[in-house]
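Hi there, hope your week has been kind to you so far. No rush at all, and the record is pasted right below.
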Amino acid sequence: MRGFCLCIFVFFGISTTLAQTDQGVTLTGSIQSDWLLPQNDEKIGAEKTEDVQTNTYVDLMMQSKHVDAGARLEYLEHPLPGFENDFKGWGVPHFWVKGRLGCAELTAGTFYEQFGSGLILRTYEERSLGIDNSLLGGRLVVKPTKGITLKALSGRQRRYWTWNKGLVSGADAEVHLNEWIPCMQTAGTEWMIGASWVNKYEKEEDIFVDPTHKLNLPKYVNAWDVRTTLNAGPWSLLAEYAQKTQDPSFDNGYNYDRGTAVLFSGSYSKKGLSLLVQGKRSENMSFRSRRSQIGTSSFINHLPAFTQDHTYALAALYPYATQIAGGEWAWQAEAGYNFKRKTALGGRYGMNLKVNFSHIRWEGVTYYQDLDVQLTRKLSQAFKLTLMYMNQRYNKTVVEGEGGMVNSNIFIADGKYQFSPKVTLRGEVQYLTTPDDQGDWAYGLLELSLAPHWMISASDMYNVGETHIHYYQGGVTFSANAHRVQIGYGRTRAGYNCSGGVCRYVPASKGFTLAYNYTF
C-alpha cells in the first residue's frame, strides 16, 4: 500500500510540474478507484475478507506535436469480488510511446487495435468485465495519400500480469473510394473497402488424445478478412467475411476444422424513422493467442452478439454470451418511429415507439431470443413516462452450462418528473415473470437528482419465486468539476456481467462501497 501511495504522490507531482510549464506539452490523465468494505451474508453467499477490496487505475498521457507517451498504474492487490483469481497484484502493465512524422505514425509499447468489426482482431479494455488484451510490441500506421490507410503490427498479448509467449502479427488496408470520385463527394456518399490479415505464432505443446498419441499442432494460424461499407443519404450498409485456418484449441475440442464468419448490417434513418437489420453466421471462430487458455482472456478477435445491451435491471438479468467456440446464426431487427406532436397518436408533446427483435440459434437449437417494445411519451411539461414489454427465451444450458430454457415476460415502467431545472425525480418499477429457473423477480428504483452536484438513489431487486431474497442498494453521488465521488451500501447478486456478448461471472457481495473518478 505504501508503494501505491508513493506512485500516486509522484503522479500528482509530475502533473503539477508539467502543467506549470509552457513547452508545447499537454498533460492529461484520470483516476478510477472503486472500493468495497465487505460483510458476511449467508443468505446471498457473500463472505467477508480481512482486507478492504479495491480496483484502482491511474492513467497519465503526455502529448506534443510529434511525440506522445502514456502509462497506466493498476492497483489490485486486494481486488473486488470476481477479480481475485486473475488480476490480483499491482504494477504498470500499460506503457507506450507514439511518434508522428509526415504520413507515418509509429507506436512502441502496449496498444489496442481493431481491424474492421473485430472478426479476426480486436484488442480492447473493458474494466467491468476484467478484460484487457492489449498487445506489447509495435504498430505502424501510414496514410500515403488521401483515402488510404495502411497498418502493420506485431506483439505479445497481455494476460492479466503477464504476456503470452505466442506472437500476434497482422496488417490492414482501407481504401475510401469516395475520396477519389468527385460525384460521390458531391452526393455525400462514402464507400470503403478493406482487407486484413492476422497471423498467430505459438510453439507446439505436448497434448495427448490418449497415452500414446500426441496432437500435431500447427505453429502458425492465419486469418483474413474482407469488408465494405457504403453510406448514401439515409442508408448505411456493411458486409464482412472472415476465415481462419486450422486452429485446434481447448475451445473447439482440438479439432482441425477451419473457422468462418460472415456478417451483414443495413440501416435506414431519417427524421422520425429508423430501421436496422443485422445478420451473422459464425463457426469455429475462437481465436486465442494461447490455444489451451479458457475463460475471457487471450482472445485475439471479437464477435458481436447482435443482441440489445439492456440497461434495465430485469431485462439484463439473463444476458447472452456469444458462443465463439462453436457456431451460431444471429439475427437482429429494430424499428423506431417518432409520432409528431399534436397528432392523434403523438398527443401534445409527441411519442416515440421502438421495437427490437433478436434471435440466435445453431443446428435447430434456439440459444437466445427476445422481443421488446418500448414506448416513450411526455405526458406533461414536467413528466415523461417510458413503458416497456419484453418476451425473452434464454438457453441457460448453452450459455452457462446447465439450467435448461428460461422463458420470461418482463414489464417495465420508468417515470421522470422535473420539479425544477435543478430537481428531478425518476422512478422504475419492473416485474419479471417466469415458471423457470428461480421464478419471478420484482425491482424498484427511486433516483433524486439535485443538479449540478448531487444524486441520491435507492433500489431493491426481490426474488418473488424461490429464494425470497432482497438485493437492496443505496447510494449518494457528488460531482464537482472533474471529480466524482459515490458512496453506497447494499447487496450484489451473484451472476453474469455482460457487454457486447462477452460475459464474466461475478460472485455475490455485500458491504459499503466507495467510488472516486477524476479526470484532467
